[in-house]
């Protein structure tokens, strides 16, 4: 009887240890991957004018709101620490390349607390998007865009906001002729 009780206690202890290991692993996974934007996270108001800004791309080219104010421009706001942002990169690259065929612009503004991770995003976008590195999450040049969550995709036509979303697939984009 004592042997049976001892076996039961050992099995129970092993089950508890396994359970603890699984819970700790799950907590680590959840902590490492930031949540997607909360439903209802505010987006800039449709019809708003393209805010004035000037910045240099990762390639050193000067980009300003004046460059984007004519025609169509997609401005993507991404964070290097955001899982959904990284997941959107292949689709953003394809979209940017397709927009380029229509003569439109595509710019990705990448925010990062430090350079870590941002370089991976720039490489993943390749030549599809002009990439601007923001100086942290509170870069004054981009505050007028009113972005409060990542990722955020803003579509401008003739300098006016026509669509804003956290899901790139929700945008209706011009089709190449």
From TrEMBL:
Keywords: Isomerase. The keyword Acyltransferase does not apply. Transmembrane segments: none annotated. Residues 44-177 form the Thioredoxin domain. GO terms for molecular function: isomerase activity; oxidoreductase activity. The keyword Isomerase applies. This is Thiol-disulfide isomerase/thioredoxin.
């Amino acid at each position: 009887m004592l042997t049976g009780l001892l076996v039961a206690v050992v099995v129970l202890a092993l089950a508890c240890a396994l359970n603890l290991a699984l819970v700790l692993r799950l907590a680590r996974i959840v902590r490492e991957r930031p949540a997607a934007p909360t439903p209802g996270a505010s987006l800039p108001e449709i019809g708003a004018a393209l805010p004035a800004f000037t910045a240099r791309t990762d390639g050193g080219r000067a980009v300003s709101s004046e460059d984007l104010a004519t025609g169509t421009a997609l401005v993507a706001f991404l964070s290097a620490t955001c899982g959904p942002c990284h997941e959107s990169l292949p689709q953003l690259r394809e979209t940017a390349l397709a927009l380029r065929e229509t003569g439109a612009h595509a710019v990705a503004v990448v925010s990062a607390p430090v350079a870590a991770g941002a370089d991976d995003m720039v490489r993943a976008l390749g030549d599809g998007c002009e990439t601007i590195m923001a100086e942290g999450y509170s870069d004054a040049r981009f505050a007028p865009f009113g972005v409060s969550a990542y990722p955020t995709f803003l579509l401008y036509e003739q300098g006016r906001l026509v669509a804003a979303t956290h899901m790139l697939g929700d945008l209706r984009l011009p089709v190449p002729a």
